[in-house]
């Protein structure tokens, strides 16, 4: 369990929390500035893409983290995120032996 206090509640944290929930991670928000995150350590691949809006940091962190889990994941975003380069991260993951692709060099990213 991880407890984050003094956290900013924003669109970026909202989409990241929702993506984690879709993979079976428990994310509680007991007040306006706290997240309590609990996970079994096994994330489940959802039936559809994980939508992260225009949250660049969340997109990059989550893409890298998904390399540690089994299953097919797709990380996607809004029309603006789909124009933001993610090629360097994809290249680094490929060099580590991760099966990952982002044909346009921007999201969506399949891991």
TrEMBL record:
Pfam families: EPSP_synthase. Residues 4-110 form the Enolpyruvate transferase domain. GO terms for biological process: chorismate biosynthetic process. The keyword Cytoplasm does not apply. Keywords: Transferase. It comes from the Bacteria. InterPro entries: Enolpyruvate_Tfrase_dom (IPR001986), Enolpyruvate_Tfrase_sf (IPR036968), EPSP_synthase_CS (IPR023193), RNA3'P_cycl/enolpyr_Trfase_a/b (IPR013792). GO terms for molecular function: 3-phosphoshikimate 1-carboxyvinyltransferase activity. This is 3-phosphoshikimate 1-carboxyvinyltransferase. It comes from Pseudomonas syringae pv. japonica str. M301072.
